[in-house]
Specification:
By secondary structure, this protein is an alpha+beta fold. Helices cover 29% and strands 28% of the residues. The protein folds into 3 domains: 93 residues, RNA polymerase, RBP11-like subunit (Gyrase A, domain 2), CATH 3.30.1360; 118 residues, RNA Polymerase Alpha Subunit, Chain A, domain 2 (Beta Complex), CATH 2.170.120.12; 85 residues, 5' to 3' exonuclease, C-terminal subdomain (DNA polymerase, domain 1). The longest helix has 16 residues.
C-alpha cells in the first residue's frame, strides 16, 4: 500500500572496493530519484579541487639564473628540466608544510624520480625522468616542496621567494580522475531508487579512500556556516541539545551490551537481537516481554539510559524508518 512520505528516504549502505593502491570504488545507496546526482556532482568537484597534495613550487640550480637558461653537460634545457620536475610526485615525510631539499649529482647518468628520495621526501613516481647529464656535469640544485590544494601559478609563487629561485606552477591536486555513475535499483518493489557509484584514482600521494573521506569532510565543513543561523547538526534523538545519533550506534548486538544472563535470555527468547529493536519499543512493550521481571526491566532501562537511548525517547521518523529497514536486512 502506498503511503505519504513526510521526509526524504535516507540511504543506509556504503560499499568500498580497493581496486589498487591508487584506485578505489565507493558506492552509496539507496537514494530517492534525483538525490544521488545531487550528492555525487559536488563531491566530484570537491575531490578534484580540495584534496591535499604536494608539489615542487620552486628550484634553485647552480649555474642557471632563469628558466630559459641552459647548463653545460646537461642534455635538457632548464625549461625542460622544470617541466620534468613538475611531473615528479613528491610527498613530505614529516608534518612540515614546506621543505627545501638539496641534491647533487655527477655524470654520466640519468636522474629519475627514485634518485630524489631521501629522509625528507618520498617520491611516488620513481620512474619519472628528470635529466640526463654527462661526465662534464655536476648538477646541484635545491627543490622547494610545498603542501597545498588546487593550483597556484608561478607568478604568485615568485612573490614568496628570493631572487635565486625559479618559481614553478604548482599542481597540488593528488586526485587524477573521478567519475560517478548513477544506477537504478529496486527497493521494496519500487524501481526508481538510485545508487551512486564513484571511481576515484589518485597519483599515489594519498589513497583514493582517504581523498574521498576528506572531500566529504570538506562538504560538511562548508555547509556548517549555516549553523550560525540554523541548527543543521546531525539528526538527534529528540532535539539539538542532545548527542547526535548515527545508525551504526543503533545496530549494536544485544549480546554486546553486557546485560545479566537473566535479562539477556528474556530478550533473546523474545527474538530481540539488536539495540535498535529495544529503542523502537515503547515502555509498555518492553515491560510486556515474556518472563522479563522488574529487576531485568530496571537493568535494561539503566543500560539504555547510559547509552543515551532512554525508553520512550522517540526517534525522529526518518531515523526510525531507516533503522527499521536496516534491522529487516540484518534479520532476513
Amino acid at each position: 500500500m502506498k503511503i505519504f512520505a513526510d521526509s526524504p528516504f535516507l540511504p543506509t549502505e556504503v560499499e568500498i572496493e580497493a581496486i589498487s593502491d591508487t584506485e578505489a570504488k565507493i558506492s552509496a545507496y539507496p537514494f530517492e530519484s534525483g538525490f544521488a546526482i545531487t550528492l555525487a556532482h559536488p563531491l566530484r568537484r570537491l575531490l578534484l579541487s580540495s584534496s591535499v597534495g604536494f608539489a615542487p613550487i620552486a628550484v634553485k640550480i647552480e649555474g642557471a639564473t632563469h628558466e630559459f637558461d641552459s647548463l653545460r653537460g646537461m642534455l635538457e634545457d632548464i625549461a625542460i628540466f622544470i617541466i620534468n620536475l613538475k611531473n615528479i610526485q613528491f610527498k613530505i615525510n614529516s608534518d612540515e608544510e614546506r621543505v627545501e631539499v638539496e641534491y647533487s649529482f655527477d655524470g654520466p647518468r640519468e636522474i629519475k624520480g627514485s634518485d630524489l628520495i631521501n629522509s625528507e621526501v618520498e617520491v611516488v613516481s620513481p620512474d619519472a625522468h628528470l635529466a640526463t647529464i654527462n661526465s662534464d656535469c655536476n648538477l646541484t640544485f635545491t627543490v622547494v616542496v610545498q603542501k597545498g590544494i588546487g593550483y597556484m601559478p608561478s607568478e604568485d609563487i615568485r612573490e614568496m621567494l628570493s631572487d635565486d629561485y625559479i618559481p614553478i606552477d604548482a599542481f597540488f591536486t593528488p586526485v587524477k580522475k573521478v567519475v560517478y555513475d548513477i544506477e537504478k535499483m529496486l527497493v521494496e518493489d519500487n524501481p526508481n531508487f538510485e545508487k551512486a557509484v564513484f571511481t576515484v584514482q589518485t597519483n599515489g600521494q594519498i589513497t583514493p579512500i582517504t581523498a574521498f573521506k576528506e572531500a566529504v569532510s570538506v562538504m560538511y565543513s562548508q555547509m556548517s556556516v549555516f549553523n550560525k543561523v540554523f541548527d543543521l547538526s546531525k539528526v538527534t534523538v529528540s532535539d539539538a541539545s542532545e548527542e547526535p545519533v548515527e545508525l551504526k550506534d543503533l545496530i549494536v548486538k544485544i549480546e554486546d551490551l553486557n546485560l545479566s544472563a537473566r535479562s539477556f535470555n528474556s530478550l533473546d527468547r523474545a527474538g530481540l537481537k539488536f539495540l535498535g529493536e529495544l529503542v523502537l519499543m515503547s515502555e509498555v512493550e518492553v515491560k510486556n516481554i515474556k518472563n522479563l521481571g522488574k529487576k531485568s526491566y530496571d537493568e535494561i532501562y539503566d543500560k539504555l539510559e547510559s547509552l543515551t537511548f532512554p525508553i520512550e525517547n522517540t526517534l525522529p521518523e526518518n531515523v526510525a524508518s531507516a533503522l527499521r529497514r536496516k534491522l529487516e536486512q540484518l534479520k532476513a
